[in-house]
C-alpha cells in the first residue's frame, strides 16, 4: 500500500465510538451486547491496522488486463466471521445474485468510483485504478462499517438500533473516501485534522449519493446514514450536514452532539479528540457553500474541496483555519473573483472559521 503525505495509521468507522459507548451502557442486553462486541472488534481492527502500517501492507494492483478508467470490484462474504476478506461472491461484471447486501455493496463501490471519475477524472481511490474490495456479513450483529486501509467491511447491524450498513450508499462512499484521503493529504486522525478527515468523507459520501440520485444541492437531504437507524430509534440518520446536532435525539443513543459553528466546538479526549463530533463544523460550511451556489454540489463546491484535498498543499496536521484558507485559494485559482469565492468566504464566516 502506498500513501502520500505520510503514513499515519488510520482505522475509520462510520459509527462513532461515543455512540457505541452509549449503547454499551444500555440495560437491555439486546442493545448492550452487540455494542460491546462491536467496540471490542473495532479495538482489535484498529490495532491490526496500526501494526499493518508499521510492518507494511501488501501492494494492491489491478488484475492483469484490467482496463484503465473502469472499476475492478470484488465482494466477499465473511459469513458472520471475522477472517478477511472471506469467500468471493461477486466479481466485476458478474450479474446480481440473490443476496441484496452483496448487490448493494457492489453498486456502492461502483457509484463511488463513478463520482470520482466523472466529476474529478480520478481513476479509483488511489487515482491509479486501485481494485475496490468489500466484505459483507462481517461478525454477528456487528454495528459498524469500516475502511481498514485496504478494503471495505460491512456489518449487518443488530436489527435493534442499526440495520444493514450497505443500505445507505453515502456510508459506502464515506468509508471509501477515507481511502482517497489516505492516498492524498493523509490527514492525521486526531483533533481538528481528524475532524477534517471525517468531514471529507461526509462531504464526498453525500456527493456520491447526490450524484447517484441526480439531485441538486436544494433537492438533497444532506443526511449521512439515512435509512441506517432501526424503526425504534428516534432519529433520521447518523449526522446532518444541513443542521448538525439534529440527526437523532433518542432515549438510548442520546442526542446528536455535533456543533454547527465554532461557538460550540467540543473539546474532548474521546473519539480521537472529537473527530466525529467537530466534523459538523466543516460539514456545515460545505453545505452552506454548496446550497448558496446551487445546481449540482459536486460541480463547483465539490471541485473546490477536491482541489484542496488533492492539491498537495494541505498538511496532514491542518487545522480548520488552514483548510478554510486553502478553499479560498482554490476557489480563486479556479473561478477567480466570482460567486464561488464569495460563497466559500461567506460559508466559513457563518460557521466562525477564519479564512485569513
Proportion in β-strands = 5-15%
Mean pLDDT: 93
Q: What is the chain-wise order of helices and strands?
A: EHHEEHEEEHHEEEEHHHHH
Reported for the largest beta sheet, the result is: 6 strands, mixed
Arrangement of strands in the largest sheet:
1-5-6-4-2-3
State Rg. 19 Å
Number of strands: 10
Number of helices: 10
- Indicate the percent of residues in helices: 40-55%
End-to-end Cα distance: 36 Å
Structural class: alpha+beta
Mass-distribution shape? globular
Low-confidence stretches: 1-7, 52-58
Question: Any overview of this molecule?
Answer:
With 356 residues, this protein is of the alpha+beta class. Helix content is 42%, strand content 10%. It has helices spanning 17-24, 29-55, 100-120, 169-182, 191-213, 271-274, 280-293, 301-310, 320-335, 339-351, and strands at 12-13, 73-77, 87-91, 132-138, 145-147, 152-155, 223-224, 239-240, 249-250, 254-255. The strands form 3 sheets. A 6-stranded mixed beta sheet has the order 1-5-6-4-2-3, with helices on one face. The chain has a two-stranded antiparallel sheet with strand order 7-8. Helix 5 (191-213) packs parallel to helix 7. The longest helix has 27 residues, at 29-55. The two termini are 36 Å apart.
